[in-house]
């Protein structure tokens, strides 16, 4: 069974709240990636989302864009990221999810990318610029190798579309909590809680909230309405500032829910 499926089953059975940190592969060089992954696993991450640096990252805010530029300057390539993940996989148990735009994987060769990812122990893919209508390009191949495509829904997705996406979905639903690009926010739209509950009501998969979440309070607040959170920009920033204990605190904010529930 795919590692994501196993973990989803576990969190459901135990009423756990998930915490998925995002990191940009190659920020601080690819040598740093295995250390970052093992640190995050030890700190209690449910799964880890690994970004592939790309020159035109349309959904990325300034923090992740800058991390991507640094990673590209370090010479990070998709191939090298997959090789690095293969190297760390034997000592890491949590699911590893690659987040990339379509362009790098088309350049790599879609089937080759999925095949190599599968052999490297990659469990899932987040492909923000792949619309459901175009999934045929990737989904059958992903299915063939047992790599799960994680679908995104947004604040503006109509209920019908959310239903369609969650019925096709695997693993969990990524519910985007802001209108716009990634990056820490001070405030969220008033309707976020309601929106998450709406997504949850039509989804048979766990629903995780992501975009803008940057404090332990945000983590707890979002977790009132869904099954877990995804945090990117803040994690990237804290790694850069070497504030490792602040990363542990953020992850613990999801753990606290686990013990209360
Ligand atoms: O950075 P934030 O606001 O915490 O959002 C998570 C996010 O970084 C990560 O999941 C991500 C990075 N780039 C993306 C592009 C699209 C969807 C999601 C992502």
TrEMBL record:
Catalytic site positions: 49 (proton acceptor), 60 (proton acceptor)
Top EC class of this enzyme: lyase
UniProt EC number: 4.2.1.20
Gene3D superfamilies attached to this UniProt entry: Aldolase class I
NCBIfam families for this protein: trpA
Pfam families: Trp_syntA
Superkingdom of the source species: Bacteria
GO molecular function, one term: tryptophan synthase activity
Function comment: The alpha subunit is responsible for the aldol cleavage of indoleglycerol phosphate to indole and glyceraldehyde 3-phosphate.
Subunit structure: Tetramer of two alpha and two beta chains.
Pathway as given in its UniProt record: Amino-acid biosynthesis; L-tryptophan biosynthesis; L-tryptophan from chorismate: step 5/5
Family: Belongs to the TrpA family.
Keywords: Amino-acid biosynthesis, Aromatic amino acid biosynthesis, Lyase, Tryptophan biosynthesis
Gene expressing this chain: trpA
Family matches, as InterPro entries: Aldolase_TIM, RibuloseP-bd_barrel, Trp_synthase_alpha_AS, Trp_synthase_suA
Recorded GO CC terms: cytosol
Xref: PROSITE patterns: TRP_SYNTHASE_ALPHA
Known catalytic reactions: (1S,2R)-1-C-(indol-3-yl)glycerol 3-phosphate + L-serine = D-glyceraldehyde 3-phosphate + L-tryptophan + H2O
Protein name (Swiss-Prot/TrEMBL): Tryptophan synthase alpha chain
């Amino acid at each position: 069974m795919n590692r994501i499926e196993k973990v989803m089953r576990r969190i459901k059975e135990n009423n756990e709240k998930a915490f998925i940190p995002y990191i940009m592969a190659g920020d601080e060089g690819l040598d740093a990636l295995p250390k970052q992954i093992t640190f995050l696993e030890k700190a209690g991450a449910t799964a880890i989302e690994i970004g592939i640096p790309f020159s035109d990252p349309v959904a990325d805010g300034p923090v992740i864009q800058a991390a991507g530029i640094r990673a590209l300057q370090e010479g990070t390539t998709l191939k090298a990221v997959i090789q690095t993940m293969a190297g760390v996989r034997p000592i890491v148990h949590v699911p590893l999810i690659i987040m990339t735009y379509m362009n790098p994987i088309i350049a790599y060769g879609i089937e080759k990318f999925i095949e190599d990812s599968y052999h490297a122990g990659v469990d899932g893919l987040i492909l923000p610029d792949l619309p459901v209508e175009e999934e045929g390009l990737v989904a059958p191949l992903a299915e063939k190798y047992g790599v799960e495509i994680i679908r995104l829904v947004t604040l503006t997705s109509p209920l019908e579309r959310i239903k369609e996406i969650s019925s096709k979905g695997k693993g969990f639903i990524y519910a985007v909590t802001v209108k716009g690009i990634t990056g820490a926010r001070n405030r969220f739209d008033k309707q976020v809680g309601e929106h998450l509950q709406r997504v949850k009501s039509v989804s048979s998969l766990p629903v995780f909230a992501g975009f803008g979440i940057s404090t332990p309070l945000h983590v707890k607040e979002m977790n009132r309405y869904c099954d877990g959170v995804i945090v990117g920009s803040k994690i990237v920033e804290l790694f850069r500032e070497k504030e490792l204990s602040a990363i542990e605190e953020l992850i613990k904010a999801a753990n606290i829910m686990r013990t209360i529930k």
